[in-house]
Amino acid sequence: MTAPTLLRRNRRQIERSSSRSGLWVLAIALLLFFQFHVGGFITQGNIVQILVNLAPTLIAAIPAARLLITGNVDLSIAGGYAVLGVLCGFLVSGTGSPLIGLLGTLAGGALLGLLNGTLVRVLQISPIIVTLGLGTVYTALAYLTTNGNPIYDFPSSFSFIAQTRIAGIPVPVIVALLAFAIGAYLLSRTVSGLHSYAIGGNFQAAKLSGVRADRHVLLLYVYMGISVGLLAVVTTASIGSASPTNGVGFEIDVLTAVILGGVAFNGGAGRWTGVLIGVVVLGILQAGFVFEGLNSYYQLLAKGMLLLVALGADQLVAARRRRTKGARSEPGPASDAAAQEAVEIVRRAPDPDAGLLEVDGLRKSYGAVTAVADVSFTARRGTVTCLLGDNGAGKSTLIKMLSGVHKPDAGTIRLDGQELHLEQPADAHLAGIHTVYQDLALATNLGAALNLVLGAEPYQPGRKWLGLLDRARSEKIARERLSSLGIDLSDYFRPVGELSGGQRQCVAIARVNVEGASVVILDEPTAALGVRQTANVLRLARTLADTGAAVIIITHDVDSVMEVADHVVVLNLGRVLFEGDIDEVDAGRLIHLMAGYTGGVSVAQ
Ligand SMILES: Nc1ncnc2c1ncn2[C@@H]1O[C@H](COP(=O)(O)OP(=O)(O)OP(=O)(O)O)[C@@H](O)[C@H]1O
Q: Domain named ABC transporter: which ranges (predicted)?
């Protein structure tokens, strides 16, 4: 790694850690404040008590953070806490077995999680509404099954476990720290953690990359449910009773800690270290209020205000990120792709023996609207074919048929002489047809390295069973793939949302694995790009064609067509108005053709 790269990366790491170090400073300041204001706050006994009080929040924090990172939320955790606590109470007092209580409650938690996740994904409405409704149902169930009375009569072994200490640390704290550590490991080191970030960054891009996004979110709700089951058992054993009032307002504690720790409410960002310090700050505040002898209503008020402050800070960070993204749409640093000198595009003479994509008589209607009436054209391997047309000409519908998103009503698609039956996008992928959609291509919160391996991530050698992502190999793969296309980025882990538009488009195109790509379709790749960025993207399209793919570019931009195209197809009202080689037209004629005006040009039949 070069010195400037190292410096840049270090700088960003420092920037990231400094925002967390602010919270650590706040935690120490709070400790000192309560120590000097009331006295006796920093004692071993009090610290252990703070940890015991924090145990439920610690257990719930990472699963809650992961849901937020994917752009979801679970507001049913207080209701789940109540009903699962009651379930645990019934099981332990009914059977006399703490083990049955534990296993039964965890299973109950998994079921609640499954219900939450299924309704969120199936109903496709806001997870806030779904989980708020379900949480109310769970709370009601806890009251209905107990008539509002606590359950007490547990065997002594149950409470004994909770009161046992190992090396001076109570068992509930050890359980909570273990649960947190496992969650942090899964989030930060594994492929599964990467998928959470990718889903939060761009759900569609993650899905198109092969991440099973719906299943992932469903499993995260189950993980959340099991964690709530675990904390319900821990609390019931610690308190020695199960009551439907347990956990009132608990979701506010968890969300406050997690958002305070820097997890973005809108998804895509957050780290376990931030979550940990968020939980610690909340724990110190709660204990401090008790020490100060403040009325519990003030505690409630303070917690609510803290949540508002955390949310406000989150929105400020999000707004800053948006502004930075806007500002960085300008050309990037000198060593990056968009700033590389635009190289003149050299067209090679088409190879008459190269394979062909042949589209013949394609037709597609949406109800009464015929989007593609009758389209036939050819795109030769090793060449760039530009597909032009005014708004509503049928370009998107045509590429959706070529990508397996829509099934044609009539017509055939042949590749190298073989007819293709594309029922779904996976069929097009298998046939070697890759489409780069303008807005759906990248998870902007991840770096180029992780975007390029998404869906086919390398695992650390011999550690696949642990799910460990091999970041170094991801970077190597990305570096090789991008450099084979003539792109050199200074930092492969810099979120692509921070790259310039041209760089982003280059990374999106590089997601297409050149080996095995027979047809590459680029949907408006130069829309909203500057002159030099456009030149680089076009150069990339030419490089792809030189590897032997048939490149099809959908565009409105006549200048780009004149610069890069070997072959041109103009669509108008769902029909081919013109098909021919680039030397048969000039820019003026293309503009006329796009407007549907054929004056003097040979028109395809
Ligand atoms: N899902 C749909 N349901 C109904 N009509 C549709 C649908 N998708 C497209 N159409 C109609 O089909 C026609 C062709 O649309 P299409 O999006 O394919 O054109 P386009 O050339 O890609 O346009 P643009 O450049 O504006 O994206 C339009 O009249 C459009 O309104």
A: 357-598
